[in-house]
C-alpha cells in the first residue's frame, strides 16, 4: 500500500511526508529543439512556473542515452567497491582544484548540524591540460582531473557523461533564457568555458537506527545556476516551501533539475533554490550523478537585465560566477568543521 501523503517518523527525531513528488512537474524537454517558437515558449513557461514555485522539476526526453548513464553508473559502482587505500590515492585534498575522491565524513553539507556526510564522491570537471592558461594563473576551477586507475573504463564513461551533460546544459540555458524573457541565445557567449562540476556519489544504506546528525548528504542548497541529478534509488528529499520534507523519487527516463543559489540571486529571489538532502533508507547502495552548471568564470551580474528592468532594482550586489562558486566550495570542502 502506498504511503503517499502520510506522515512518517524514521530514525531519531525526524518526520516527513511521503510521495509528494507528484507535485513536482515532469517537463518534456523535446520541445527545446522545436522549430516552432510557440512550442519553445510553452516549455519555457513550464520551467518558469516550476522554478518559481518549487525550485525542482523532472526533465523528460532530455536526449542523453541510457547507455551513457548505465556506463557511468557501472564504472562508478566499481570504483566505490575498491578498498579504501586504493580510493585514497586520488583524494581531493591532493588536488589544488577540487578534483578527486571525497571520503565518508570528509565534508559537511549542513553547516548547522554537528555530523558530517556519510556519502562518498568523486568530483570532476572539464579535463584541461596542465598547460591551460587559467590553470597556470592559479584558477581553482580549471585544469586536469585526477582519474582513478581502476576500473580502467572509469575515465571514458564519466568523461562521456560529463560532456553529454555540458551540451544538455547549453540547451537548458536557452530554455532558461526564454523563461527569463531574455534573448534565447543570451547565455551562448557566456558559456564558453563554463564552470560545471560533476559529482558521482555513493550512499551506503543508512543504519536503521540513524541519527539526524549523520545523513547521506546533509541539508544544503546548491551553489550554481542549476543542477541535474540522476539517481538509481529514492533518498533525495526537498524542503518544500510549505515546510515539509518531501521525497523526490527517481522517475525512469528523467533527470531531476533543481535551481541553485546563483540563479536565485540573479533573479532577485524569483527562482527558488531549495534546501535538499539525501537519506538512503533503501536496503541497497544508492548511486547518483549530480552535475552543477555555472557560466564562464568572469560572468558577472547583480540581476539579469530583464529582472532588473521589471523590478526596477537589483536585490543583491554584483558578483561573478567564479567568485560566488569559489567562496561556497571553499567553505564546504576546505574549512575545519
Ligand atoms: O544524490 C542526490 O540525489 C543529490 C546530491 C546533491 O544534492 C549534491 O551533491 O549536491
Ligand atoms: Fe545538492
From TrEMBL:
Keywords assigned: Ethylene biosynthesis, Iron, Metal-binding, Oxidoreductase
GO biological process, one term: ethylene biosynthetic process
Iron is among the record's keywords: yes
Pathway terms, separated by semicolons: Alkene biosynthesis; ethylene biosynthesis via 2-oxoglutarate
Annotated catalysed reactions: L-arginine + 2-oxoglutarate + O2 = guanidine + L-glutamate 5-semialdehyde + succinate + CO2; 2-oxoglutarate + O2 + 2 H(+) = ethene + 3 CO2 + H2O
Swiss-Prot/TrEMBL cofactor(s): Fe(2+)
Pfam families listed in its UniProt record: 2OG-FeII_Oxy, DIOX_N
GO molecular function: 2-oxoglutarate oxygenase/decarboxylase (ethylene-forming) activity; metal ion binding
Residues of the Fe2OG dioxygenase domain: 193-296
EC code: 1.13.12.19, 1.14.20.7
PROSITE patterns tied to this protein: FE2OG_OXY (PS51471)
InterPro entries: DIOX_N (IPR026992), IPNS-like_FE2OG_OXY (IPR044861), IPNS-like_sf (IPR027443), Iron_ascorbate_oxido_reductase (IPR050231), Oxoglu/Fe-dep_dioxygenase_dom (IPR005123)
Similarity comment: family membership: Belongs to the iron/ascorbate-dependent oxidoreductase family.
Protein's name according to its UniProt entry: 2-oxoglutarate-dependent ethylene/succinate-forming enzyme
Species lineage: Bacteria, Pseudomonadati, Pseudomonadota, Gammaproteobacteria, Oceanospirillales
